[in-house]
Design goal:
251 residues, mainly alpha, two-stranded antiparallel ribbon, 11 helices, 4% strand, globular
Length: 251
């Protein structure tokens, strides 16, 4: 019964995450959903900025605090380990849903691309960024990342994966393709409003904070192996290495 409840809980948390993530794509792209980053009644700009910053801060704090190993050690004394990741995913989805619901638009344009062909290309780049995010999650075990594997472990008799360090596909050239995908998705906007700029700038700033915290945990887990990986592989863009013999630039 405990295994069944754990599986149902993880499945529900995953479905809620997936629906929220899909809504967030439409929110950023100003398409398909009833409330987007630039839609809704326009209020006092200062109050709107303060509300939006508070929503972004809440989202960042939830991610940063609940993802830390020290928090997990305490948290798993309260809830089963099989539900820890799903609870994190559920809390993150709730924080994101609150942001999408309560976001205040600041529709004044910072830039606008008038050429429809160029605008379409930029929009396609933004969607490609979200595609990179999704693909990157599958490269590093999508269902484990979002708690499904842990939740179904008991009823499917799955063994917990051991900590192992792998660098599939994009990870051979950049350390954080998932974060790069978000940056591309948020900044590739044919019409950049003040609100969208605030969202993109704040989330990008948090991404760099998240990378710092995540890499600190990875060094603690993998030690010199991750240090060597960090030395050789670029964080968000590939590192260029100049060979001494031929002086040819290679990636």
């Amino acid at each position: 019964m405990r295994g069944l409840l754990s599986a149902i809980y993880s499945a529900c948390a995953y479905v809620f995450f997936f629906l929220t993530f899909c809504y967030a794509i439409g929110f950023v792209e100003n398409a398909f959903v009833p409330k987007t980053i630039d839609s809704g009644p326009v209020g006092n700009p200062l109050i709107s900025v303060l509300i939006n910053v508070a929503l972004l801060t809440l989202f960042a704090l939830q991610h940063s605090i609940m993802a830390r190993p020290a928090f997990k050690r305490v948290w798993t004394k309260i809830i089963p380990e099989s539900a820890e990741r799903s609870t994190y995913v559920l809390a993150a989805s709730l924080a994101l849903a609150l942001l999408l619901w309560q976001w205040r638009p600041l529709p004044e344009l910072v830039w606008s691309i008038s050429d429809p062909t160029i605008a379409a290309v930029v929009t396609a780049i933004s969607y490609a960024g979200f595609g990179l995010v999704l693909l990157s999650t599958f490269l590093i075990s999508h269902f484990h990342l979002f708690g499904i594997s842990q939740g179904f472990a008991r009823i499917l008799r799955l063994k917990a994966p051991s900590d192992h360090f792998v660098t599939p596909l994009f990870y051979r050239w950049i350390r954080h393709p998932l974060y790069l995908g978000f940056i591309i998705a948020f900044w590739a906007a044919p019409q950049m409003s003040v609100g969208h700029l605030l969202f993109a700038a704040a989330t990008t700033g948090y991404i760099f904070v998240g990378i710092f915290l995540e890499e600190r945990d990875l060094v603690a887990t993998f030690g010199d192996r991750y240090r060597e990986y960090r030395r050789k592989v670029g964080m968000l863009v590939p590192k260029l290495r100049l060979t001494r013999s031929s002086r040819e630039t290679t990636i």
